[in-house]
Design goal:
Shape: globular
Radius of gyration: 18 Å
Structural class: alpha/beta
Strand content: 15-25%
Amino acid sequence: MSDGRMVILAGGISSRMKKPSTEELNVENKLIKDADEKAKSMIGVGKDYRPFLDYLLFNARESGYYDIVIVIGENDNSIKEYYGPKDFDNDFNGLKISYAVQPIPEGRNKPFGTADALLWGLKSKNNWSGKNFTVCNSDNLYSQKALKLMLNSKYPGAMIDYDREALEFEHSRVERFAITIKNKDGFLVDIIEKPSSEIIENVFKQDGYVGVSMNIFSLDYDLIFPILEKLKPNPERDEKELPDAVKTLANKIPNSVFIYPLSEHVPDLTSKSEILNVKKYLEKYYSDFSF
């Protein structure tokens, strides 16, 4: 049995998903109800009303992961009700699922961001010390190829660098994605949010493509934990963000975060407008899904 370790970040309050849509959605009312009431990864977009998260967990299991921590919000029980009530080691289709709760600090109306979520996840798994793990979002469906690249990476840190031309989102949205800057050996130097057209042009000249981060990383527990503990909130969004922690690691230890280029789409369930697209994607590529 593989001991692949994974942290899935599902502790946010899904504010974009819970916003009323301004367009005609053409999806069942029960999915809109899911979007308004549950963690977004629990929306039943799959076959026989399966939650989106089932598909990520299926890909994780098929890629060699076993020990899974899902970071959940303090006000949401939808994930725990579905995957098992115990705090640790719920058996779900061959996976061992545990939970870590990301609290909302006093004086705030939402948690402290993805780096804070990962910190709570790692606090619950101090037996992972000395080992690598993969961390990713709960509202993206990463392929088995991407998950295997992270699981089998031999570097202290690693990430998937997605060719933005392969992402099937609106161009205006893709243009806002954070792009990666790499050195000549393929290691991370920087992750730039909202890049200028000049920076994008320079990246394309150097790499032959523009690579973007979709928040999937492989990290060494002992190297990233102290960085997460000391990380300051991003001044623009007042959140502790995982890309900032990974950049800190890359700057602290040169050639520590290796970049794996990949050219494929990553389904995303951020807002209600994505529900129909994701549903169609799952019908097309996971029609014989059995989990």
